[in-house]
Amino acid sequence: MSFGFLGIQFGFALQNANTSRIFETLGASIEDIPILWIAAPVTGLIVQPIIGHMSDKTWCKLGRRRPFFLIGAILASLALIFMPMSPTLWIAAGMLWIMDASINVSMEPFRAFVGDMLPDEQRTTGFAMQSFFIGIGAFVASYLPYVLTNWFDVANTAAEGEIPLSVQLSYFIGAAVFFIAVLVTVFTSKEYPPDKLEEYQRSEHPEMEAAEDEQTDDPKPFMGRFYRTGSIALLIGLVLSFPVFWFGLSAELYIVTVGIAVFGLVQLVSGYLTSINRSDNGFVHIQMDLLRMPKTMSQLAIVQFFSWFALFSMWIYTTAAVTSHIYGTEDTSSQLYNDGADWVGVMFAWYNAFAAAFAFLLPVIAKRTSRKVTHMISLIIGGISLISVYFIQDPDYLIFSMLGIGLAWASILSMPYAILTGALPVRKMGVYMGIFNFFIVIPQMLAASILGFLIGSVFGGEPIYALIIGGFSMMISAVTVMFVKDTTDKK
Q1: pLDDT averaged over every residue in the chain
Q2: I need a labelling partner for 351 at 20 to 30 A (CA). Which of 291, 398, 425, 460 fits?
Q3: Which residues are bridge partners to 63 per DSSP?
Q4: 27: CB partners within 8 A, 6+ apart
Q5: Distance of CA 347 to CAs 6, 16, 61, 356, 399, Å?
Q6: Would the pTM of this model clear 0.85, i.e. be above it?
Q7: What spatial distance separates the first Cα and last Cα of the chain, rounded to whole Å?
Q8: Is pLDDT above 60 for 111?
Q9: How far, in Å, CA of 373 to CA of 482, rounded?
Q10: Number of neighbours of residue 411 by Cβ within 10 angstroms
Q11: What is the mean pLDDT of residues 181-201?
């Protein structure tokens, strides 16, 4: 059931470990990298709730979620082939948009799939199993450029402005693994029909079904909230955009300010469509579900915000931080830089390998304590480990930092989802999983908008400070998790 995640994370790991390297190779500056990375969160923000809503409404020969696994796998595999062949920076950025959108088509239904198919007492183990396959796939994928160079003598350097052959071959292999792994899940698993799922949930959570029956799918009662929320968000977005324009601040800050304004416009459009009786569509229903999401989900949103801000700072700045702070070079065509970039791939491989191992430990800890305590401990250790990169001078010792980050990563991939699915109505599992992705995407957009500004203007262009900021953000996340209500925690 979770095997396809091995392929999905294979693609994501190649992206996380090598995209900054590709951008720098094609001429991007340190300050430009965050804005180029914005493709990943924006596509997730748009694609995941749409796919979640569509998969909730789908039932065909392949089932409810599996058709989307297959479509996403085909498109993502093609994107993985073309990404490392990009001749210019703007083409590479465009391919990242396409690749990330395609991966999201496959990935979002996988979260809902586990929520659909497992009862409460098995979900912690189910999402831990996803963490295991994610860790294995990411370990191999992150290691690939290093292995190809050191075991098979594939060149890890190229002429200025050209992507090394080791990176290109890694992406080609990743395309094949992605497609095959998802096919395994598509053709070896089955799904319960929607009416059977609702029957199971009624037997497990009659109180949730009673509350769900009281809710209406008519957006008209939400029309006033659409207008109020939209007006406030639009006003805030415009007010915050003014000083960015007036004082000539970094253009990346518009990602946040304009993003808030766009959200306001979306809410206003939803209100208008409702007022003219044109609300029977996925666009309005997604906005309505956002406004009435369960309390547990809104509490977890804060936890997700700070933990994913930390992860995104690590993904986009580790290559630059390690090559400049530890290897002492910023020359992307030099052997020293590419050795450092290869080692970052090894680091990313090991934190994913550690995550795969910790996936089996987390359910044991959760059983003896609780899912919240397990997640809190993991995030504290992860935050300290991310900050420790600043103090390490020997790159070999960075593996110890990856040990703690691996624990946090395994927990981030499992504990919030195990807590969340118990609070969601089964008929809206897909759309709420997509909406939950907002709180993964929004911190990434914030990181893309402010980290470049902070590193360039406050920290003298030294990317290592992005990792320190990320470490403190992860520890803030650890504090907020204790305020979450886990509705299915028997303790």
Answers
A1: 88
A2: 460
A3: 60
A4: 89, 161
A5: 18, 12, 42, 14, 6
A6: no
A7: 28
A8: yes
A9: 7
A10: 31
A11: 88
Query: Which residues lie across from 60 on neighbouring strands?
Result: 63
Q: Output DSSP code: residue 58.
A: -
Burial of residue 210, with CB atoms counted within 10 A of its CB: 0-12 exposed, 13-18 middle, 19 or more buried: exposed
| Tokens linked to 416 | 């919030």
> Could you tell me if 77 and 179 are in contact, meaning their C-beta atoms sit under 8 angstroms apart?
yes
Lowest mean pLDDT among 126-135, 186-195, 203-212, 414-423: 203-212
CA distance 251 to 31: 11
Q: What is the pLDDT of residues 441-471, one digit of tens each?
A: 888 888 877 887 788 888 888 999 999 999 9
Query: From CA 237, how far away is CA 255, in angstroms rounded?
Result: 10
Residues 6+ apart with CB under 8 A from 228: none
Show the tokens assigned to 455. Answer: 């590193």
Residue 490 has pLDDT above 80, yes or no: no
| Helix, strand counts (H, E) of the chain | 19, 0
- Give residue for tokens 């906005």: 287
Report helix, strand or coil for 331.
coil
* pLDDT (tens digit per residue) in 282-323: 889 999 999 999 999 999 999 999 999 999 899 889 989 999
- Retrieve residue 344's tokens: 């970052």
Distance (Å, whole) CA 331 – CA 324: 9
Burial class (CB in 10 A: 0-12, 13-18, 19+), 152: exposed
| pLDDT tens digits, one per residue of 413-451 | 999 999 998 888 888 888 998 899 889 888 888 887 788
Token pair listed for 372:
């919240």
Helix boundaries (H) for 37-88: 39-56, 66-82
**Helix-strand-coil percent breakdown of the chain, rounded to 5?**
80, 0, 20
Spell out the long-range contacts of 485-488 with Cβ–Cβ below 8 A and sequence spacing 24 or more.
485/295, 485/296, 485/299, 486/296, 486/370, 486/371, 486/372, 486/419, 486/422, 487/296, 487/422, 487/423, 488/120, 488/123, 488/419, 488/422, 488/423
| Tokens (6 digits) for 206 | 């009659």
Structure tokens of 192? 């319960």
Report d(CA 136, CA 356) in Å as an integer. Answer: 6
Q: Which amino acid is at 18?
A: N
Question: What does the alpha-carbon distance between residue 327 and residue 299 come to, in Å, rounded to a whole number?
Answer: 41
- The three-state secondary structure class of 216 is coil
Whether residue 202 has pLDDT greater than 80:
no
